[in-house]
Amino acid sequence: xxxxxxxxxxxxxxxxxxxxxxxxxxxxxxxxxxxxxxxxxxxxxxxxxxxxxxxxxxxxxxxxxxxxxxxxxxxxxxxxxxxxxxxxxxxxxxxxxxxxxxxxxxxxxxxxxxxxxxxxxxxxxxxxxxxxxxxxxxxxxxxxxxxxxxxxxxxxxxxxxxxxxxxxxxxxxxxxxxxxxxxxxxxxxxxxxxxxxxxxxxxxxxxxxxxxxxxxxxxxxxxxxxxxxxxxxxxxxxxxxxxxxxxxxxxxxxxxxxxxxxxxxxxxxxxxxxxxxxxxxxxxxxxxxxxxxx
Length: 294
Description:
Elements: E1 3-6, E2 10-14, E3 29-36, H1 39-52, E4 56-59, E5 65-66, E6 71-78, E7 85-88, E8 91-95, H2 100-109, H3 125-130, E9 134-135, E10 138-139, E11 144-151, E12 156-161, H4 162-165, E13 179-187, H5 193-210, E14 215-219, H6 229-235, E15 242-243, E16 246-248, E17 255-258, H7 264-282, E18 291-292
Parallel strand pairs: 3-6, 4-6, 5-18
Antiparallel strand pairs: 1-2, 2-3, 7-8, 8-13, 9-10, 11-12, 11-13, 14-17, 15-16, 16-17
Helix pairs in contact: 2-5
């Protein structure tokens, strides 16, 4: 049913349990998961899968991806082994699989940069850039300089600048598809380590006080201008509403929590129920910030 192998360039996992990878703890199994051990190996895997026509999905910590129940017939390509960080003058270059909290803390401890506003974003640098993630007044675009990107369509790597990325709210040019981030370079303007670590601690404390700490995918729905989904969901009386093991958080109505034994179907049904109720009551269509893998 399950085995792991390594060949020096890749680690393989057959029939991986996606509920143990995804931060919401839901999902069935995939046909195969591959973890490349270098950027070159990642490009090679993507190239082979892309040219073969086989379904595949490149993921980091799956903090924003809801996997399906049952068997995902494609290949999960994981970036969990690509975590390197390099420093040069006023820049930090980070591999796509490095976690954002780790990057923030290392930059602070070494006095390289104050990335404290985004310290609580749980995903990897790949997802951070892909969706221009942000929190507490900061976002990826505020620190981003450039990225090395692989194009599955033409099999080439190239560099994208901040202008090339066309950043906007939870969006980058990577959403066009077929482009995969290998590493990203951020400004390192220096900081006071002690002061920055104090700010990080304060922001993390504020997050714990205002957001649920259970298994979730973070904010489920996108803001649209002045429309704040959590407020509409709360006003609609949906706080605490449950379908199976999936429940709208009592602490923050923008989150759906796996309260124990939730299936991905429970989550998707709850998402659709929320959308229907908010649409019925307020005439607003909520779009999801998370990606639902089918």
